[in-house]
């Protein structure tokens, strides 16, 4: 390309840049002066509690739950797959696998319902849900949730039953009762924070919003993929070492509120984003697998954010709490903050 052609190309690009900037800003302010209340969305970054020693006492999370309860969410979302996606994975195992989904065989044997039928029954039950449900209704809905592969929501119903009513009946057999008892003691933020908070607030369910349909990467050489992606993350690891020591120390405390304050700090979240994505994008990799992994990561996060939006699509002005692994929070905050009629709530302020 000669000098004259370069000049023409430069002039064309200079003319295009303002148009691109204008297009990027077109959606800003569309909700200015909107009618009715704005949605309030709080993203709580969390460590995965399964990595802590077994038998984590519920009181360790009491400070966190107290502050989240003060936010008064109408909707709670968790990082788990929906029954629909688990059913999809079961029907297309070679493409999606079943790595993230529990079995519903026991619940299907007790209720006679496969996942699709159970999902439909859950919808019907919630549509006619009374203001003061009976214990029998709660047991029945818990059984339906288990058959629909929504264990966290089943636990929401179970926790709202008086102790004397936590027994078999109305679709729950002894095996399902034992399962619910075990869920209540499992080190899992979906149960220990999501389900317990929803039950405390009198909500009927939590909403699973995770998604893995978009991060199924076609890999020609799995060993090379593992080598390149692991190598990219290893290159960024030194920047996180001191922070991970702090996380480990805070995780051993009797009160986990300081831990949650720390993992929701902007500095910690920025460091996570850097090692998770920036290191991958910069990594020299013959096959480009780290960069491909980032494409899958962003697809997953986009679909998760869309799932969160769907939970309050028919509820303008809802107060929404989204509980998700801290590495997702920067993407959630960035994209949820661009939605119309939505105000993002600072987790640091809520946890103060």
UniProtKB/TrEMBL annotation:
Pfam families, per this entry?
DUF5694
**What residue stretch is flagged as signal peptide?**
1-23
Keywords, comma-separated and alphabetical:
Signal
Q: What name does this protein carry?
A: DUF5694 domain-containing protein
Q: Which organism is it from?
A: Pelomonas caseinilytica
């Amino acid at each position: 390309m000669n000098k004259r052609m370069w000049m023409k190309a430069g002039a064309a690009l200079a003319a295009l840049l303002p148009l691109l900037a204008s297009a990027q800003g077109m959606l800003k302010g569309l909700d200015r002066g909107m009618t009715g209340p704005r949605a309030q969305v709080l993203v709580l970054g969390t460590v995965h509690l399964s990595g802590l020693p077994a038998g984590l006492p519920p009181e360790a999370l009491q400070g966190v739950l107290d502050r989240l309860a003060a936010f008064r969410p109408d909707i709670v979302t968790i990082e788990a797959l929906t029954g629909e996606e688990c059913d999809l994975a079961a029907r297309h195992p070679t493409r999606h696998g079943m790595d993230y989904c529990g079995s519903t065989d026991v619940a299907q044997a007790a209720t006679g319902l496969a996942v699709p039928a159970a999902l439909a029954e859950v919808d019907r039950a919630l549509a006619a849900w009374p203001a003061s449900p009976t214990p029998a209704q709660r047991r029945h809905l818990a059984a339906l949730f288990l058959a629909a592969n929504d264990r966290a929501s089943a636990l929401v119903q179970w926790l709202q039953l008086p102790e004397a009513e936590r027994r078999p009946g109305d679709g729950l057999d002894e095996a399902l009762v034992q399962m619910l008892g075990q869920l209540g003691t499992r080190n899992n933020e979906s149960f220990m924070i999501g389900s317990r908070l929803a039950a405390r607030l009198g909500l009927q369910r939590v909403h699973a919003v995770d998604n893995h349909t978009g991060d199924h990467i076609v890999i020609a050489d799995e060993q090379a993929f593992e080598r390149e992606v692991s190598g990219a993350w290893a290159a960024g690891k030194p920047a996180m070492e001191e922070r991970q020591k702090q996380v480990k120390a805070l995780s051993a405390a009797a009160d986990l509120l300081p831990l949650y304050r720390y993992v929701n700090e902007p500095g910690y979240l920025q460091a996570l984003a850097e090692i998770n994505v920036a290191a991958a994008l910069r990594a020299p990799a013959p096959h480009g697998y780290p960069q491909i992994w980032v494409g899958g990561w962003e697809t997953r996060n986009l679909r998760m954010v869309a799932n969160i939006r769907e939970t309050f699509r028919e509820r303008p002005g809802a107060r929404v709490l989204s509980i998700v692994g801290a590495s997702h929070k920067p993407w959630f905050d960035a994209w949820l903050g661009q939605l119309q009629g939505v105000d993002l709530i600072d987790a640091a302020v809520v946890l103060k």
